[in-house]
């Protein structure tokens, strides 16, 4: 590392203001800051000494996402192998009547499915980050580390790569860069990317996420490609029958061994990530808890006033169904787009949980609900904080 640092020091002047390579200076600064401690130091005035900076916060989020990422790799490979009835024979994959695959086979197939999506997300997103940084002549921020990692995890594994590129481009450019870059966005860029694809290319984002591979299966009738929420949204099956028959299994949804978006299916993996974020103080426990309370209370209310299969689903099933756990842990708690005041976080989180149930129950065309709920509350977060601040100001003025 000392050799690399010396090389950086020798060419550093070329990337500074007035240097021959000034135009691409942000690229050099990003590489330098990623590998070494920045050379800039505060020299005067009051300042806080803290080892936690944006880079370390972003890396903490990446660490918290790793359980979802690793499980998503295995589950993507496992679901593919189950649908295609693939087992390893020598060095080749062949079709079989045995619907099982070795762990290694699942991981290898999962990597084959997952890694191109990750690479495209980072490559295309990084291109836009670098382009805007060079044009504006500011440093490349670490925000892409999280957005480029989050976005693939909320996509179905059958998503075309060109749609991945288009989606991350929309989220980075329209959702973040037009507002000024990292820290200036009003909505979560990764979630906005997914919303764009959801409305522009709904067929690729919803429905039977493994239908592209079912044609090669040995026994198509034995396989259901629909997610549990998709099954209820389609109708024709009662909640009691679906639970009794095992079509909707609480444990399967909790563990995540079901079709769905790559990183969202396992509530257990999300809880491990939540523990990392809460222990390190990166995410707000108020938002997470409030979202759970909002979801459960509205879910119980829906049981009394609703008649559709989705409305009759036991409220605690909603906790493990779809992407609620992933959204509540990693999306709703985004410090930039979430509410900032303590009371505002409770209101913000509660309304997210409430809206998830309303969307799931009242609109059969959107059986998930988490994406729309968080994006809507991202837009409402500044208004919530404004009301909370105004309330405290008026209360204190009465004491004067």
Provide a descriptive summary of the structure in words:
With 400 residues, the protein is mostly helical. It has 3 domains: 1-37, no CATH class; 56-219, no CATH class; 228-391, no CATH class. It has 18 helices and 2 strands. It has a two-stranded antiparallel ribbon. The protein is globular, with a radius of gyration of 23 Å.
Give a count of the beta strands, DSSP E runs of length 2 or more.
2
State the order of secondary-structure elements, H for helix, E for strand. Answer: HHHEEHHHHHHHHHHHHHHH
Helix content: 55-70%
Most strands sheet: 2 strands, antiparallel
Kindly report the average pLDDT value.
79
Strand arrangement within the widest β-sheet reads 1-2
3D shape: globular
Key attributes of the depicted protein:
two-stranded antiparallel sheet; mainly alpha; globular; single chain
Provide a quick synopsis of the model.
The protein has 400 residues and is an all-alpha fold. The chain has helices spanning 2-11, 25-35, 54-84, 103-136, 143-153, 161-173, 189-200, 202-205, 211-214, 228-234, 239-245, 250-255, 267-279, 285-305, 315-320, 324-331, 342-362, 370-397, and strands spanning 86-89, 92-95. It folds into three domains: 1-37, no CATH class; 56-219, no CATH class; 228-391, no CATH class.
């Amino acid at each position: 590392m000392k050799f690399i640092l010396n090389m950086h020091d020798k060419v550093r002047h070329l990337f500074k203001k007035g240097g021959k390579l000034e135009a691409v200076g942000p690229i050099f600064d990003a590489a330098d800051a990623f590998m070494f401690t920045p050379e800039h130091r505060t020299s005067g005035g009051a300042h806080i000494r803290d080892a936690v900076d944006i880079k370390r916060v972003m890396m903490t989020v990446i660490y918290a996402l790793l359980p979802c990422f690793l499980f998503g790799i295995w589950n993507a490979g496992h679901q593919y192998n189950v649908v295609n009835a693939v087992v390893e024979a020598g060095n080749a994959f062949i079709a079989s009547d045995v619907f099982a695959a070795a762990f290694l086979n699942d991981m290898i197939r999962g990597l084959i499915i997952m890694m191109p999506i990750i690479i495209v997300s980072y490559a295309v997103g990084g291109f836009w980050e670098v382009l805007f940084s060079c044009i504006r002549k500011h440093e490349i921020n670490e925000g892409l580390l999280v957005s480029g990692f989050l976005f693939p995890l909320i996509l179905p594994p059958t998503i075309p790569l060109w749609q991945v590129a288009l989606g991350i481009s929309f989220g980075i450019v329209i959702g973040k860069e037009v507002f000024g870059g990292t820290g200036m966005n009003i909505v979560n860029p990764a979630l906005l990317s997914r919303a764009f694809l959801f409305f522009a290319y709904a067929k690729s984002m919803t429905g039977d996420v493994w239908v592209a591979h079912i044609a090669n299966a040995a026994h198509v009738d034995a396989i259901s490609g629909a997610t549990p929420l998709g099954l209820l949204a389609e109708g024709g099956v009662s909640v009691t029958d679906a639970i009794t028959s095992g079509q909707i299994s609480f444990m399967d949804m909790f563990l995540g061994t079901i079709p769905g978006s790559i990183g969202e299916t396992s509530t257990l993996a999300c809880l491990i990530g939540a523990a990392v974020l809460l222990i390190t103080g990166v995410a707000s426990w108020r938002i997470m808890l409030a979202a759970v309370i909002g979801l459960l209370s509205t879910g119980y209310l829906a049981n009394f006033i609703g008649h559709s299969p989705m409305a009759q689903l036991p409220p605690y099933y909603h906790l493990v169904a779809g992407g609620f756990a992933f959204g509540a842990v990693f999306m709703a708690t985004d410090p930039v787009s979430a509410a900032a005041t303590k009371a505002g976080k409770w209101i913000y989180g509660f309304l997210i949980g409430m809206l998830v149930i309303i969307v799931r129950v009242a609109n059969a065309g959107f059986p998930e609900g988490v994406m729309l709920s968080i994006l809507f509350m991202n837009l409402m977060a500044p208004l919530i904080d404004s009301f909370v601040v105004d309330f405290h100001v008026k209360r204190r003025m009465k004491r004067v």
